[in-house]
């Protein structure tokens, strides 16, 4: 094709300029993928393509990602203006092909993963394979590239255990007679994070919501030391305050225990967010949520009145009030109930 011919011309030009590695990258991008490529990178069930020129093996991250192939101004001395323009055009074409290949491979893996998540008989092994492959694919991109997709609202679609949810959120789901029905995660581009948990209580009681608020940041290896010791690498979510099921706000000054949750953002795009906690052992898969307010309203049994405003709820029961106090460490709800 014309694009393949253009990239081959660029490869020849780069070889002549003494840049064999860059030339190899262009050549690899225009070549068909080998049939022996590991199924951990290419979906077994789809037709996903990967960037053959990018080092996916061994968890290596390509320095600069696609931008590493931009050679303008480097090794072009002695080239004519037309040759430089031709090279620049080929570089742009190669970058477009790289982005297209990444997107095709990611879309196929995301489809495979969500097919299993939504299946009535989940294949956990297939889910873990897809998550691992998405991680390999993401590591082919520049460091921090996944963070561009974070801002917005996300709804939990899959987790490997209830313990993982409790480790990431308030932990109230670990109480007897309670469980986390839904979890929503929200990021903004100002470094703020919000977690909304909808908690189900055994018995004739309404669902309740606990909301954690705080900050998020990407912490690298050069973070050094913190008050608690060596700073861990990863996406750090810091919870600084909580609004409980009674709609009562508790901050660090009024009894809430501020804490950091170290996560690894394995993969993120416009549709899916995959995170792990506990050193990568525990998995959380979120899907993009376009109308979180509506979903929360429905889950909490609220009604929308005139003007689109949520009608005021009835006061929560004593049981709900007491459960809501657990996150503040005020007292055990069960002691409070049985002492009456």
Structure in words:
The protein has helices at residues 2-16, 20-30, 81-117, 124-138, 162-168, 292-299, 318-324, 333-338, and strands at residues 152-159, 178-187, 192-201, 208-219, 225-226, 229-230, 234-243, 249-251, 259-268, 272-277, 282-288. The chain is α+β, with helices and mostly antiparallel strands. The strands form 2 sheets. An 8-stranded antiparallel beta barrel has the order 1-2-3-4-7-9-10-11. The chain has a two-stranded antiparallel ribbon with strand order 5-6. Helix 3 (81-117) packs antiparallel against helix 4. It is elongated. Mean pLDDT is 73; it is low at 12-73, 222-231, 314-319 and 330-340.
How far from one another are the termini? Answer: 81 Å
Strand order of the largest sheet: 1-2-3-4-7-9-10-11
Query: Main sheet?
Result: 8 strands, antiparallel, barrel
Radius of gyration: 25 Å
Structural class category: alpha+beta
Question: Residue-averaged pLDDT, rounded?
Answer: 73
> SSE order, as H and E?
HHHHEHEEEEEEEEEEHHH
Number of helices: 8
| Beta strand % | 15-25%
User: Residue ranges: pLDDT <50 for 5 or more in a row?
Assistant: 12-73, 222-231, 314-319, 330-340
Q: Which range best describes the helical content: under 10%, 10-25%, 25-40%, 40-55%, 55-70% or over 70%? A: 25-40%
The tally of beta strands, per DSSP, is 11
What's the shape?
elongated
């Amino acid at each position: 094709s014309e694009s393949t011919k253009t990239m081959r011309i660029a490869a020849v030009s780069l070889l002549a300029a003494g840049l064999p590695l860059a030339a190899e990258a262009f050549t690899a991008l225009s070549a068909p993928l080998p049939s022996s490529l590991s199924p951990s990178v290419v979906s077994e069930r789809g037709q996903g393509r990967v960037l053959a020129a990018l080092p996916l093996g061994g968890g290596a991250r390509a320095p600069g990602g696609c931008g590493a192939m931009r050679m303008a101004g480097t090794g072009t001395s002695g080239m004519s203006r037309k040759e430089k323009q031709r090279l620049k055009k080929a570089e742009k074409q190669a970058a477009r092909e790289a982005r297209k290949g990444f997107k095709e491979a990611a879309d196929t893996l995301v489809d495979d993963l969500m097919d299993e998540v939504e299946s009535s008989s989940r294949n956990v092994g297939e889910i873990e394979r897809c998550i691992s492959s998405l991680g390999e694919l993401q590591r082919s991109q520049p460091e921090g590239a996944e963070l561009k997709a974070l801002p917005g609202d996300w709804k939990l679609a899959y987790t490997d255990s209830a313990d993982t949810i409790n480790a990431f959120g308030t932990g109230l789901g670990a109480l007897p007679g309670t469980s986390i029905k839904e979890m929503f995660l929200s990021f903004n581009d100002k470094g703020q994070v919000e977690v909304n948990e909808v908690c189900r209580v055994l018995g004739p009681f309404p669902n309740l919501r606990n909301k954690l608020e705080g900050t998020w940041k990407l912490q690298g290896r050069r973070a050094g030391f913190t008050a608690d010791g060596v700073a861990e690498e990863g996406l750090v979510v810091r919870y600084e305050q909580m609004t409980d099921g009674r709609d009562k706000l508790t901050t660090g000054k009024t009894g809430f225990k501020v804490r950091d949750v170290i996560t690894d953002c394995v993969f993120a795009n416009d549709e899916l967010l995959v995170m792990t906690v506990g050193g990568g052992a525990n998995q959380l898969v979120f899907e993009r949520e376009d109308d979180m307010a509506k979903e929360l309203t429905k889950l909490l049994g609220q009604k929308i009145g005139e003007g689109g405003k949520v009608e005021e709820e009835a006061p929560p029961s004593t049981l709900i009030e007491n459960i809501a106090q657990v996150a503040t460490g005020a007292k055990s709800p069960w002691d409070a109930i049985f002492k009456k």
